[in-house]
Amino acid sequence: MGLHKRQFWGPMLLLGLSPSLALAGEPDSGDTAWLLTATALVLFMTLPGLSLFYGGLVRAKNVLSVLMQCFAIACAVSILWLAIGYSLAFGEGNAFLGDLSRALFAGLGERAQTGTLPESVFAMFQMTFAIITPALIVGGFAERARFSAVLAFSVLWSLAVYTPVAHWVWGGGFLARLGLLDFAGGVVVHITAGVAALVAALVIGPRRGFPHQAMPPHNLTMTVCGAGMLWVGWFGFNAGSALAANGDAGMALLVTHISAAAGSLAWMAMEWLRHGKPSVLGIATGMVAGLGTITPASGYVGPGGALVIGLAAGVVCYYATWILKRRFRVDDSLDVFPVHGVGGMLGTLLAGVFASDALGLFSGQGYAQGQAMGSQVAVQLFGIATAALYTGAVTYLLLKAVDAAFGLRVSPEEETQGLDIALHDERGYDL
């Protein structure tokens, strides 16, 4: 049976073993082939999946700016991961941060091994997670942020927020030692990105004309194409997190699909009941909510639990979106916090419920270290609160620092003109 990130890295680092010496023997060719495939699938989620999903949601005058931001973040975070990100996340270090033993991938040769995998494959797989997380935040301040500020913030945020939280949960840090269940990134990816997007939307302020001026998506066809790519890519995201080609990966893939389908139908039903018509945007957004919510639980729950999680995601994230924009009038442009942040919190909490093996048809795979449901849920809540508070505070400080250095927001004239022309001197469409 393959070892999951948390199950492998926590004990290994507590014993003070280097990644390459953790397990003897040659890498497993089946596990390696699957992780190579999963790595490509997760990168496919950002380029082109998330890029097209976000690009279609903004107005035509800003489509290239979103594509540019996602592309540049992928490049910049890749180099950061090589330089120190991977080492700080997965180096031995302490309970809060890794060390620099793997800076510039030191010691990561062809024979370096992590569990049943070449360490190069593991490091690259983890790089794709580090790429998509700051790219998700782009949706919180779309259509009004300076490109230079976005790039600087994304690099600093990845270093100050993503890498420490990844170490806490997957690198043998204090949340891993407490037994937090986060199979594929409910805390590490979705809560951090969602909270950061909310803080960014508050700090940078709403788009000109919000909420009185209609700002509909300019190309829903593009958005649905991107959504389909996200759905397929998410199989690598969740099933790949088993770090093996085994039954854990198979179950993670199955429950991921069930939750996505249930989330889509639940969101569609809510719109149908409230507005009389189901929307394409709604069913696609519900799918993303179902995927984000099942992510932390995907390696611990069964099909019955996944069905409940997906249905809950569609309803809860739908109302969270409505409340944030209509009640509080926060211009989280592409609904990052209500979909990813709230979904990540909900999924992380429900992982502590449906991982129980005492729920009959809705049972999961049982708890690590034999914890009862109550104590496991308490650990989950602590992990949610810790990650959210840390992310919120550090994100605010980083935004203020970037604003002082570069200026976060474009001028009113540039915003009216559109970021494609104002910042990149190009048009998305020239028909």
Shape: globular
Largest sheet: 2 strands, antiparallel
Number of strands: 2
Task: Indicate the structural class.
Answer: mainly alpha
As for the number of domains, it is 1
CATH class bucket: Mainly Alpha
Q: Topology as H/E string? A: HHHEEHHHHHHHHHHHH
Strand order of the largest sheet: 1-2
Walk me through this protein's architecture.
With 431 residues, this protein is mainly α. The chain has a single domain, classed as Ammonium transporter AmtB like domains (Ammonium transporter fold, Orthogonal Bundle), CATH 1.10.3430. 67% of the residues lie in helices and 1% in strands. A two-stranded antiparallel ribbon has the order 1-2. Strand 1 and strand 2 form a beta hairpin. Helix 11 runs antiparallel to helix 12. The longest helix is centred in the C-terminal third of the chain and has 33 residues. The protein is globular, with a radius of gyration of 20 Å. The N terminus is likely disordered.
